[in-house]
Design brief:
Blueprint (H helix, E strand, L loop, with lengths): L2 H9 L8 E2 L7 H8 L6 E9 L2 E8 L3 E2 L1 H8 L8 H8 L16 E5 L7 E4 L6 E2 L2 E2 H8 L3 E3 L2 E2 L8
Parallel strand pairs: 2-6, 3-5, 5-9
Antiparallel strand pairs: 1-7, 2-3, 4-10, 6-8
Length: 161
């Protein structure tokens, strides 16, 4: 599992050739932003959550964090991220390359409102050195997203005096 499954998934939309592979790691938001030459917020990070047999992946803007109160209000449970092993077992992607494409197991995908600040974002593509440029409508389509949620908090703006 990994980049080849993600590429095959994206191929159904005619996008397999648009997967970007880097010679450097893009396993973290910061590394991906550096590799692409974009701000961290444009990296669409995929986080896997689950509890009691209920699992889902949420894509967030790279600079956003989970707001536990919003998450609990929306999903009715504490925001519990899956371990790296659980994430791999469920998605078929290792941490650093988790994405909503070419998943091992059918799983609900959600897009967080924090992404809406951008016209396009860069999710990983199944490996720790890959990405693809996606408009928000493309990301919705390619991921088969169940919808949009508002479960993040953005960094505080720095006030310069």
């Amino acid at each position: 599992m990994g980049i080849e499954e993600a590429r095959a998934h994206l191929g159904r939309f005619g996008k397999a050739g648009e997967v970007i592979e880097f010679e450097v790691s893009s396993a973290t938001v910061e590394l991906a932003a550096q590799a692409l030459g974009v701000e961290a917020g444009r990296i669409a990070k995929s986080l896997a959550f689950g509890r009691n047999g209920s699992f889902h992946v949420i894509l967030f803007a790279g600079d956003a964090r989970v707001d536990n109160a919003k998450y609990k209000a929306r999903f009715g449970m504490k925001a519990t991220m899956l371990s790296p092993d659980e994430t791999f077992e469920l998605t078929g992607h290792r941490i650093g390359g988790v994405c909503p494409f070419g998943l091992k197991t059918p799983i609900e995908i959600w897009l967080d409102e924090s992404l809406r600040r951008f016209d396009h974002v860069y999710p990983a593509c199944g490996s720790a050195n890959s990405a693809i440029k996606a408009s928000l409508p493309e990301l919705e389509l390619w991921s088969g997203a169940a919808g949009w949620v508002d479960v993040a908090k953005l960094p505080e703006a720095t006030v310069v005096e």
